[in-house]
Amino acid sequence: MTERARPPPRLALLTLPSAASAEAVAEFAALHRDSLVLVGLSNPYRRNTGGALGQAWRHLRRSGPRMLGYLAVNMSLPRIASALSRRPGPLQALCRDGHIRAMPVEDVNGPAFKAALRESGAELVVTFHFDQILTAATLAIPPLGGINIHPSLLPRHRGPIPGFWAGLEAEPAYGATVHRLVPRIDAGAILVQRAVDLPRGTSASAAARLLHRAAVPLATEALRRIATGEAEERQAEPLPYCPFPGRATLREGRRRGIRLVGPGDIRAALRARL
């Protein structure tokens, strides 16, 4: 078999169900359903992060009530809407119809997930809006390691809300990047990257949805290059991490017209199906 005749790698897809990425993740999964062998769904309220109340308290102390609104729209509303719906979400339906194992992931580096990853035969891990960091030992299980999809022009805007931090700049620079997974947040070698134009005034929530959607063809291209042996990795020194913004930063963003959530984001969250 020649290098170019190699079949696509078997994939383990890891995600955090959220309005920010649900549509993009479902689109990616549908495109690569024949390669999917495992889907891992992170629990944002898992015990080792303090649970729902512990996380809410940390966000409130650091960022104030506006951040709780952002999280409610992107995390809680789609969960409520999905629970009230009689139909499974597109990713859930795809796994059911394709007999693909879908499992909750409390600890991506714990024995339960590691065993599932080994048993699945996955050759490559794909993290797509996933909130846990894989250790070197976990990344060593699939022979091709892992890649991550991130909604920014790395190495700029590493972290959980890159659309907000990009909007703070004098000349906002939005984009999407596919990079190698390493045991450090958004710091691996860049495989594919593209700038994306977003209108001024785009909320951080809307930016997340639009940039994740824009990343789907980039992820497909990265997988093609990996399968054919054409992948080129560009090392970039990581820039400072951009965390959840604090109260002062949020006030500055509001002064500049940067919103975390707009009316359209609430409607999108209610339509999302996880």
UniProtKB/TrEMBL annotation:
Keywords: Transferase
One cellular component (GO) term of this entry: cytosol
InterPro entries named in the record: Formyl_transf_N, Formyl_transf_N_sf
PANTHER family assigned: METHIONYL-TRNA FORMYLTRANSFERASE (PTHR11138), METHIONYL-TRNA FORMYLTRANSFERASE, MITOCHONDRIAL (PTHR11138:SF5)
Organism, scientific name: Muricoccus roseus
Pfam families for this protein: Formyl_trans_N (PF00551)
Domain Formyl transferase N-terminal stretches: 111-211
One Gene Ontology term of the molecular function aspect: methionyl-tRNA formyltransferase activity
Family matches, as Gene3D superfamilies: Formyl transferase, N-terminal domain (3.40.50.170)
Ion transport is among the record's keywords: no
Name of this chain's protein: Formyl transferase
